[in-house]
# Entry
Amino acid sequence: MDCAYLFRGRVDRKLMFKFKCNSCGGVYFDPQPDGKRYFHACPDLTNPDFQPVPSLPKLDLRESLPRPNARDERQKPGLQFKDGEYVTVSVDPNDAQKQVVTKVQQITVSEGAGRTLVE
Ligand SMILES: [Zn+2]
# Structure
């Protein structure tokens, strides 16, 4: 579905990009119409072997399974932004008074199968 008409007049369309997640097939805009960044995370899969609880017929807590090779664009926990780059900071195992700053190559939780620019 082309949602471009929803955004007309709110954000310059040239600044919005439409992506398709190569892991789950989800389509999303980044940034969103309000200008905020969108961090896609693939939804879990519904367990095809789910069996309802016979003694609780009205209870249907769908069991979900993690999606293999899921994409999660959220930022890894514990990252810091120092001097223009993302780093992790830990205590030096040989000297508790020192910190070890390690440059991080990937800031997202998981790249999954990547994403494709749709338009
Ligand atoms: Zn996805």
Observations:
- The longest strand covers residues 95-103.
- The chain is about 5% helix and 35% strand.
- The chain has one domain: 4-117.
- Confidence is low (pLDDT under 50) at residues 1-6.
